[in-house]
Amino acid sequence: MSQRLNRRVRLLSGAAFGAAALVAVSSAQAQSAAATTQADEQPAEVGEIVVTGIRRAIEASISAKANNTSIVEVISAEDIGKLPDVSIAESLARLPGVTSQRLDGRSQAISIRGLGPDFTTALLNGRELVTTGDNRGVEFDQFPSELLGSVVVYKTPDAALIGQGLAGTVDLRTVRPLAYGRQAIAVNYRHEWNDIGALNSGTTDSGDRYTLSYIDQFMDGTLGVALGYAHMSSPYQSERFNSWGYPTYSDGNLLTGGVKPYVMSSELERDGYMGVLEWRPNDRIHSTIDAFYSEFKNTQVLRGIEFPLAWGGSAGDCTVNVPSALCRPAPSLRPGYTVEDGMIVAGTWDNIKGVVRNDLNKRDSNITALGWNTEFVANDDWTLGLDVNYSKVERNDIILETNAGTGRNINGALDTLGFELTDDGVTRFTSQLDYADSTLIRITSAQGWGSDVIPGGQVGYMNTPSIEDEIKAARLTANRTLHQSPFKSIDFGVNYSERSKSFVNDQYYIGVPGGGDLFVPSEYLLDPTDLGYLGISQVLSYDALGVVNSGLLDLVRNPNADVAAGNWEVTEKVSTAYVRANIDHDLFGLPLTGNVGMQFVYTDQSSTGFSARQVGPGVSETVAVSGGVEYLEILPSSNFILEVGDDVFARFAVARTLARPRMDDMRASRNYSYNTSLNQSTDVNRSPWSGGGGNPELKPYIADVVDVSFEKYFANRKGYVSLAAFYKHLETYVYNRNQIFDFTGYPIGLITPTNPEPALRQGLVGAPDNGEGGWIQGLEFAISAPFDIIHPALEGFGGLFSASQTDSEVQPDPTQAPTTMPGLSETVMNGTLYYERYGFQGRVSARYRSDYLGEVAGFGNGRTLRSVAAETVVDAQVGYEFQSGPLEGLSILAQVNNLTDEPFKTFENGDERRTIDYQSYGRTFAVGMNYRF
What pTM did the predictor assign? Predict the structure, then answer.
């Protein structure tokens, strides 16, 4: 076991408890306060205010923010089953210091204070959640916003917050029926559509969302029930351009290496169920059972064409470099092309062999989360608690690529392409061939890719990974009320959790039996797909999954070492003990609240998997491997809130926080190789052994954090203004480096005079490791105000605005330049203007984030980090609620998301001309109604 109780921990502990000692000293100088009877601040109690509209939701969020002992941001539902946005991530992205990354046009992954999803923990009713992704980052579109009562984002932790993140902690909260206090039945319906239209045959551009919610109390208000069901069928479209990259041409100018443009049509289907049973027979017993279940299906149809250009090679015997039965020459750029600022922006390519793509991405997943919480008031001083919870996710993907063209590898017609780069960095083409002609275009290996496994080349590829993630946890808590002390109470607790996540990596080459071509059978042909936005009129379209499932094509399991080494399982057993002292005191005549405490987190982590090496074409050798580590981290924390004036608060927080590494970084699996020509070397830098993979002994990111915030609440807490600053000192940061690994026991084949036992069993492997750290710092400003404080004539109008500026310098390897932090935009701004009065309501919101390093899907659907261009996304909503008469309780609304059709763009090498991805999503419109009985 490794225990890191270093000087910084001691300093933080001393600072936290030293501040508490100051409180105690001042207590001796001040008159003793009466014992407080106010209930302790508990995370699960935020968001119990009844809300019925935009203004009431804002007021509830402001009240929750002001009353929390941590620095938080809060979203409250406008009414039962009605959060202010179409998704949780959209709402989160409007909070100060929070932003989101759009994936396929939807806000899905969030960043808090410049740190990406890997540094943020998500909770459901205060309990850590499983995730459908490959790692820890939560994909928030799994959770229906209609089934949530509130969301709290903790920017500073306290000792009782289990599962806290280094960047922040997002707690999704369902309604509590006894706290709600009255019967409510609500029905919501929305119809939505995209203005681009259905871009692919066999898809739709419209969908529906509907929700049913029920809350009631029985047995004289001692038993409460809340039930909810939410269905969503949401289409989304995109026109996509993708570039392979930009090599340097022989004249020294940059040009496009190849392109892979698509149009995508997708449909997201989700059914979510929520249930809460709450029992409080008397003032001493309070028990709650809650359950959540979500089925999630996401189907993406992608059709387009891939053009190898500067990076396109030749095939066959091209001694005479002209098209023939023996040679497919490499693409050739004609003289006379146009150059602007060192980049070739227009010209003509000869000898182009296009690959028509009909692809499909399909994801089926389900999440189950169950929890039981009971509190027992033993006497006036002691309250005991028990919480048991379980959550599990199962996910299965199909990532299907199919290729078509004019003929196999050398065979088939070549094209001549004119091209021109637009101001957005998108290449438009003019072609000579008809790529929609089913007598010309057939399923084939136009480039001969994958010929090491499929003779003549593959006609497609299918990746079917699956994920299973499971958490089991139990928690015991105790609260001791104190008398005549600066501390009103002390909390004690212990939490034990087991988490196991596995990744199964199944991949298949697709071939035509006998190595020929397959003309698409008529029953699978669809209307051609229009690529007019690229200048290509149409391409051949067909039901790709139908063709694969028909048996007309062969599926050959990928036997290569990298696939075998892609399987892994990671297990974590975490024991957490904590103590937290809650402050309620007058400090020199000023009210002081907050807490000071410490967590003791003991972790036992392990991983199993496979090490694999390639011993020949299509032949690999595997070794079962395992590894792990145990360690203890001590995490002190403190939060102080001093009311320096009437509804004016100064907050100060200091804490030590951690973020566990990515789970794929913790895998034991790795690729390795053995070079027999170096088997007698005794120099580890020239060892016959080498490899790369995960590190099951990887330890967490650690940061020491200081936060300061000043908040002024006004207009009876209907508005506020705040200014906050934070500094995070990263003690360690995970990065990839070469490290010595012991290959003892790994096979090398039969020992012979020509293949003797190697002189070394050690070698260098590239793997994640804990390196040096750095710092992240930032400023946040936020204001929320009803405009009637300016003039009574503006009653009903209001606005919210926030801006944050974040900077970082993280240098895990002292010999290299500082690394760019994924997810960090230096500037983030959000603004909302709203009106709500006489039943009418309207809202316009905009959010901006500057350039950042984002995580996107790369080759083989693997994780790739790319520079993402700045963006501004605008949404709007109008509605009317009938407040009297036979339609009382009915409200109608209309919404538009991405009002300005803001694209998503990535680029390389800091040069926005070198566009890698350019995706246009169009606008999504929705109309609907809500009825509350």
Answer: 0.89
